[in-house]
Amino acid sequence: MVNDFAADPGLIESARTAADVISDLRDQADACETPVVYVNDNHGQWHSERSRIVGAFLQPDCPSRDVVERIQPRDNDYFVIKPQFSGFYATNLPVLLPRLGVNRLVLTGAAADICVLFTAADAHMREYDLWIPSDAVASESPERARWALEIMQASMGAEVAPTRALPLKSWLARAASQSAS
Q1: CA–CA separation, 108 and 14 (whole Å)
Q2: Chain centroid to CA 4: how far?
Q3: Which architecture characterizes domain 9-180 according to CATH?
Q4: Over the chain, what is the mean pLDDT?
Q5: Where are the domains of the chain?
């Protein structure tokens, strides 16, 4: 979501809608004392780091500046830079999550049918419980988002529901009670 969406101009409106939901979900994570981890493309900046990547998309001429302003990472959030589609591929995420004691993931972002889908597949192979809030992902079209969400639900056992139907606290509590039984 920290992106200018120049390569996917059809994605920006969907990202604007998802950004408000993601911001609210991040507030819910804070209230539940749940870590927030950003996994972001390096956008071809192979010598980059968090402040340079985020700063590039906060420039006045960036078409998605409003999106990035709403959801930009805070000082206490984790920020993982990825070179490819999956958040797990060639990143420190597989080391970070166990250190944080994480066994379930809420995946949000863009694009539902590429980066979110590939990250969900890798998370599923690592046996993480998954929730992909359907209103917190962006895609070039509603059809592509639906297709990806259906795959994640049917093939990866992901919970797929909008945040208004499933608040984070409820999902965490339900997931914890299922793990205990």
Answers
A1: 12
A2: 16
A3: 3-Layer(aba) Sandwich (3.40)
A4: 95
A5: 9-180
